[in-house]
Amino acid sequence: MEALKMPARRSMAADLVELLRARIRSGELARGDRLPPERALVAELGISRTVVREAIARLSAEGWVEARQGSGVFVRSAPQAFQVSATELADLEDVLRLLELRIAIETEMAGLAAERRTEEDINAIDNAVAAIEEDLRRGGDGVAADIAMHNAIAHATHNQYFVRIIEFLGASLVPRRNVATGEEQAAARAAYLRTIQGEHRRLVEAIRKQDIGAAKRAARMHLERSLRRGRRRLDPARSVDS
């Protein structure tokens, strides 16, 4: 097997997961093959045993490999269905890649919602936006209501496949919002949440007016701004307007 080379970015465990996934997909590591022993990966890649164990645990949880007591870790068939694991959602760079996918899906979804929405759809979307406002007023983060808003927009397309993929993505729809401590962080967090809510309002108004182009632009702008904010968090030195 060709020597593994670790990329420079992302967590080391996430890098190792992706490298091993790629070799399973390509057939270089076939079903039933044993993975290199932990000590061999540690020596070859210059990583810790903790990193290897974390990566193997993630691959096992996702169904790529299985551990056999006293024998080692063996390759299973590569999972065929699209999936997003909890461990991927814990990695900011994976979350940002998922956000790029969402831009493609939700821009078109917003346009279809604007074209096809009914008064009942608008009422459901408005209720979700109002729930976000109420949660923020109470000091919450509005995440549950934010997810409900995305679901309501998906339903407004009257296309069950948008509904199903948005329901599948679930909590990954909404970027993590850390609870801030201290007055300065709390003020910054409040401003951040107000900005997001303003983006929501522009999107909802475009859908209400059945302005397809404006709805697509509002959805894209909202998600692209979220992507830029996430990239700044990943690399604080990066100069990106939010």
Mean pLDDT: 83
| Structural shape | elongated
> Biggest sheet, strands in spatial order?
1-2
Oligomeric description of these chains: single chain
CA radius of gyration: 21 Å
Low-confidence stretches: 5-9, 176-184
Strand tally is 2
Strand content: under 5%
Number of helices, where a helix is a run of at least 4 consecutive DSSP H or I residues: 10
Largest sheet: 2 strands, antiparallel
> Which class of secondary structure composition applies to the elements?
mainly alpha
* Distance N to C terminus: 44 Å
The SSE order reads HHHEEHHHHHHH
Amount of helix: 55-70%
Task: Give me the secondary-structure topology.
Elements: H1 12-26, H2 38-45, H3 49-61, E1 65-68, E2 72-75, H4 86-89, H5 92-116, H6 119-137, H7 143-156, H8 160-169, H9 183-208, H10 212-234
Helix pairs in contact: 1-3, 5-7, 5-9, 5-10, 6-7, 6-9, 7-8, 9-10
Tell me what you see in this structure.
The chain is mostly helical and 242 residues long. The protein has helices at 12-26, 38-45, 49-61, 86-89, 92-116, 119-137, 143-156, 160-169, 183-208, 212-234, and strands at 65-68, 72-75. The chain has a two-stranded antiparallel ribbon. Strand 1 (65-68) and strand 2 (72-75) form a beta hairpin. Helix 5 packs across helix 7. The longest helix has 26 residues, at 183-208. The radius of gyration is 21 Å and the shape is elongated.
